[in-house]
C-alpha cells in the first residue's frame, strides 16, 4: 500500500526539485572542466528553511525521505526572530525535530529584526539574510521554502492592492535568489493538503500566533479577505489567483527581456537616454527601461514604486518643462536637450 495521497503529493513535488538541483549541479561541474561532479566534492547539499509550522515541517519530512534516494545531502535551518517570549526554546525544539527526521546539518540562526518597511518586511529581510549566510557558509546548492498555493494567492492579492503593475501580480517564483538558490516546491499544492500530510505522518507542528494576528496585513487577508472572496466568487479563487501569478510572470519575463534589448538602443553617446527613441517604445517596455536605468544609477529597487516611474515617464510623454524629479536613493532625473539625464542628487 502506497503513502497517503497528501504525502505522495509533497514527496513528488520535492523529488522534482531535487532532480532539477542535481541536473544543475552536474552542469556546473561540467562547466568547471570536469566530466561529472568530483567524488571529493560529494553530493550537493540542500537545506530546508523550517519554522516548525505545517508547511515547512511537511517540506522537511519530504526532503528527508527523498534526498537519500537521490544521493543528495539534506539539512535544515530554523530562524529564531526573537519576537516572542520563549522563541529560543521553540527554535531548539524545531531543530531537535529536524534532527530526528535525519536531516544533517541542522542549524539555528538567531536574528535581530529591525523596523525598516514595517514588521512583516523587516522579519522577512532578517530571515533571508540568515538563510543566505547559512547557505554560503555550508555551500548549499539550494534552500527549499514551504510556500503553498494559498500563500501565492495571498501574494497576488497584496500585489494587486499595491497597484505596482504586472510584476507585482506574478507572486513568488518557483526559483529565485542568487543562482536560483531558493526553491518553492509547494507552489502548486494547497495548504490543506500540506497540513494533511503532517497529520497522517504524526508530525508535530507549531502554529505561529502571528499568522492569526489581525495586526498583520497578510493575516487579515488570510482569515478575512480570502474567505470573503471565496464566499462571493466560489471555492476556485485560490487556484485562479495562483494561475494568474504564473501567467503574469510569463508576460512580465517577456516584457523584461524586450526592455533589456531596448535599453541599449536608447542610450546616447554621453550615457543619457534619448527621449525620442523612448517615446516610440510601447509604454510597458519604456517604463521598464526607465526603471532599470534609475536602479542602475543607485535608486533602491525596494523603494521605487510605480508612481515614481510614472513621474519619470511624463518627462517623455508629457514634457512641459518640468523640473528635475527626485527619486529614492538621492537620484535625480531631468530632461536636457532631448535626453534624460539620471544622476546623483
UniProtKB/TrEMBL annotation:
It is found in: Cytoplasm. The keyword Nucleotide-binding applies. The keyword Ligase applies. Keywords: ATP-binding, Cytoplasm, Ligase, Nucleotide-binding, tRNA processing. Its main location: cytoplasm. Pfam families: ATP_bind_3 (PF01171), TilS (PF09179). Residues 46-224 form the tRNA(Ile)-lysidine/2-thiocytidine synthase N-terminal domain. Gene3D superfamilies: 1.20.59.20, HUPs. It catalyses: cytidine(34) in tRNA(Ile2) + L-lysine + ATP = lysidine(34) in tRNA(Ile2) + AMP + diphosphate + H(+). The N-terminal region contains the highly conserved SGGXDS motif, predicted to be a P-loop motif involved in ATP binding. Belongs to the tRNA(Ile)-lysidine synthase family. Ligates lysine onto the cytidine present at position 34 of the AUA codon-specific tRNA(Ile) that contains the anticodon CAU, in an ATP-dependent manner. Cytidine is converted to lysidine, thus changing the amino acid specificity of the tRNA from methionine to isoleucine. This is tRNA(Ile)-lysidine synthase. It comes from Streptomyces sanyensis. The lineage of its organism: Bacteria, Bacillati, Actinomycetota, Actinomycetes, Kitasatosporales. The gene is tilS.
Amino acid at each position: 500500500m502506497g503513502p497517503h495521497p497528501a504525502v505522495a503529493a509533497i514527496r513528488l513535488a520535492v523529488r522534482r526539485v531535487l532532480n532539477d538541483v542535481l541536473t544543475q549541479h552536474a552542469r556546473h561541474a561540467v562547466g568547471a572542466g570536469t566530466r561529472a561532479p568530483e567524488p571529493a566534492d560529494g553530493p550537493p547539499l540542500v537545506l530546508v528553511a523550517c519554522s516548525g509550522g505545517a508547511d515547512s515541517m511537511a517540506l522537511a519530512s519530504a526532503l528527508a525521505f527523498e534526498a537519500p534516494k537521490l544521493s543528495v545531502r539534506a539539512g535544515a535551518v530554523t530562524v529564531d526572530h526573537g519576537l516572542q517570549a520563549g522563541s529560543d526554546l521553540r527554535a531548539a525544539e524545531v531543530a531537535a525535530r529536524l534532527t530526528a527526521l535525519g536531516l544533517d546539518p541542522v542549524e539555528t540562526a538567531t536574528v535581530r529584526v529591525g523596523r525598516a518597511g514595517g514588521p512583516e518586511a523587516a522579519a522577512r529581510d532578517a530571515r533571508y539574510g540568515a538563510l543566505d549566510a547559512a547557505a554560503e557558509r555550508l555551500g548549499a546548492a539550494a534552500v527549499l521554502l514551504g510556500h503553498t498555493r494559498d500563500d501565492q494567492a495571498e501574494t497576488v492579492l497584496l500585489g494587486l492592492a499595491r497597484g505596482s503593475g504586472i510584476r507585482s501580480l506574478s507572486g513568488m517564483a518557483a526559483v529565485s535568489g542568487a543562482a536560483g538558490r531558493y526553491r518553492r516546491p509547494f507552489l502548486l499544492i494547497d495548504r490543506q493538503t500540506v497540513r494533511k500530510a503532517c497529520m497522517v505522518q504524526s508530525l508535530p507542528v507549531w502554529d505561529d500566533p502571528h499568522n492569526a494576528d489581525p495586526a498583520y496585513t497578510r493575516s487579515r487577508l488570510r482569515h478575512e479577505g480570502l474567505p470573503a472572496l471565496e464566499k462571493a466568487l466560489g471555492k476556485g479563487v485560490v487556484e485562479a489567483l495562483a494561475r494568474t501569478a504564473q501567467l503574469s510572470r510569463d508576460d512580465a519575463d517577456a516584457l523584461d527581456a524586450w526592455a533589456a534589448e531596448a535599453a541599449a538602443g536608447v542610450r546616447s553617446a554621453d550615457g543619457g537616454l534619448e527621449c525620442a527613441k523612448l517615446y516610440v517604445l510601447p509604454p510597458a517596455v519604456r517604463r521598464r527601461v526607465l526603471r532599470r536605468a534609475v536602479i542602475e544609477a543607485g535608486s533602491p529597487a525596494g523603494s521605487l514604486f510605480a508612481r515614481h516611474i510614472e513621474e519619470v515617464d511624463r518627462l517623455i510623454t508629457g514634457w512641459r518643462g518640468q523640473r528635475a524629479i527626485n527619486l529614492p536613493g538621492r537620484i535625480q532625473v531631468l530632461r536636457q536637450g532631448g535626453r534624460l539625464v539620471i544622476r546623483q542628487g
